[in-house]
Amino acid sequence: MTWEEIVPLLGPATLETAQMVGWSAVFTLLFGLPLGVALVAFDRDGLRPLLALRSGLGFVVNVGRSLPFIVLMIAIIPFTRLVVGTTIGTAAFVVPLTVGAVPFYARLVETALREVGADVVQAAQAMGASRTTIVRKVLLPEALPGLVAGLTVTVVALIGYSAMAGTLGGGGLGDLAVRYGYQRFETSLMIVTVVLLLIIVQLLQSLGDAVARRLSHK
Amino acid sequence: MIQACGLRKNYGTTVALDGVDLHVREGEIYGVLGRSGAGKSTLLRCVNLLERPTAGTVRVAGQDLTALGDAELNRARQRIGMIHQHFALLSSRTVAGNVSFPLEAMGVPRAERERRVGELLELVGLGGRGKDRPHQLSGGQKQRVGIARALAGNPSVLLSDEATSALDPATTESVLGLLKRLNAELGLTILLITHEMNVVKSVCDSVAIMSGGRIEESGTIADLVRTPDSRLTREIFPLPEPAPAGSVTLTFTGDPGRPGASQPVVSDVVRKFDVDLSILGGSIEELSAGAVGRLRVALDGQERSAALAYLRDSGLIVEVAGEAA
């Protein structure tokens, strides 16, 4: 294939990947962050120990984390239909991406929050701060660099998962590489796609690292 | 001001507090002295209920904290300041932001907060450092931020958890000086725990010595020093034990109306009586209770008993080894 043929394919594919990854990153943050907070707060040494709830959440997260993405994607097709009304296309693919990434990010949130010193949390308790104040003004701000680093890792993982979108007619760069590069032996397009993905991931990672460093005041 | 009764705290089968009673009077600096593992940290954390005691009650400023619900306990805690060994400052906030935190938790409006933060930083000698980050400060400055933060809610009580243990001697002294000033100027009652006798000697009015989850001895420093066989006296003024038979131990109590350690009672004795006196050991300390000292001497000669009587009459505490005091 020539450049003239490749470029018109790359543009829409990149946009589709960006849409899928972008939206699922937003929803992952929306659901994964509270879930991660819950994993820490309801634990034995947490702000509000609720062990039964904690082990329930932990179990769900582990189930989500142990399913291979391609299996998860197919297994939740009924759920996807319930949410977006269809099971094919970019919008439909946001659902399995989010469901797959939420437990992943929640664990990273949990780890980042546990890095916040117990002494700082106790100092806030000693000052008479309520639990919500401690979460909003101590745990989350203190863990912010870790939360950003975790989100970066999650977004990179989402880009990886998004390559499977083609299976459900989702499109995107991964799908392009599979259909043209693999199934039609268009090596040049394969190489361009790989290089483009590499650049995107590198840029995202550097951006995430820079933001995390900027936010850290240790 | 602080009254703890029958405090017990068990962790599983480990007993951290084994029936502790503590009474801290309004306006005093009360030190709890003990080695690590003695239970002093648990005791302090039971006072503001960071640890809930297994049994016993805690009253602060007349309020039984153990009986309060969550919201009420939080309100009570806002009136109890606490400072920490490793400062426990928020690295995500500036110095001013750290001091502002408890005010935010109390729901103080922004303008009022800013005014109060300025005052507090001024009070601890950090005026103008509000925009700095905690990691840009020295240990002593960090602890001053901790103190400013602890005072934000106008507390009647300040709890100090080994607040100077991570600091060098000169910085320790300046932080202790600040605590003493706040105690005098604001009438702040301070309960501090420490493993350093120096801290007790330089700032405390009263002390409790803890070991194995119990208070072994407690009282005002002035009273304990007057008790020659108290643990405090033995630890502040170490003399070789046991005392050689017949040797005499003199305690200068530093009370008004009694001779201080700087008065020439000893040379008087030698001049007035036919005795030989040699010094075996001794030390003098400037405590908040006054100049206090212990001196071990050998006293021999024909008029030994008259000399001893003279020393007793001058107001010293005289112990003769091998005799009841």
Automatic annotation (TrEMBL), chain A:
Protein known as: D-methionine transport system permease protein
Pfam families per the UniProt record, alphabetical: BPD_transp_1
Highest taxon listed in the record's lineage: Bacteria
Localization annotation: Cell membrane
Organism: Nonomuraea maritima
GO biological process: D-methionine transmembrane transport
PANTHER family: ABC TRANSPORTER PERMEASE, D-METHIONINE TRANSPORT SYSTEM PERMEASE PROTEIN METI-RELATED
Transmembrane segments: 20-42, 54-77, 83-106, 146-168, 188-208
InterPro entries, alphabetized: AA_ABC_Transporter_Permease, MetI-like, MetI-like_sf
Assigned protein family: Belongs to the binding-protein-dependent transport system permease family. CysTW subfamily.
Gene Ontology CC, one term: plasma membrane
Keywords per UniProt: Cell membrane, Membrane, Transmembrane, Transmembrane helix, Transport
Record bears the keyword Transport: yes
Membrane topology: Multi-pass membrane protein
Sequence ranges assigned to domain ABC transmembrane type-1 in this UniProt record: 14-208
TrEMBL record, chain B:
InterPro entries per the UniProt record, alphabetical: AAA+_ATPase, ABC_transporter-like_ATP-bd, ABC_transporter-like_CS, ACT-like_dom_sf, MetN_ABC, MetN_ABC_transporter-like, NIL_domain, P-loop_NTPase
Keyword field contains DNA repair: no
Molecular function GO labels: ATP binding; ATP hydrolysis activity
Keyword set, alphabetical order: Amino-acid transport, ATP-binding, Cell membrane, Membrane, Nucleotide-binding, Translocase, Transport
Protein's GO biological process: amino acid transport
PANTHER family cross-referenced by the UniProt entry: AMINO ACID IMPORT ATP-BINDING PROTEIN, METHIONINE IMPORT ATP-BINDING PROTEIN METN
Name of the protein described by the UniProt record: D-methionine transport system ATP-binding protein
Source organism (scientific name): Nonomuraea maritima
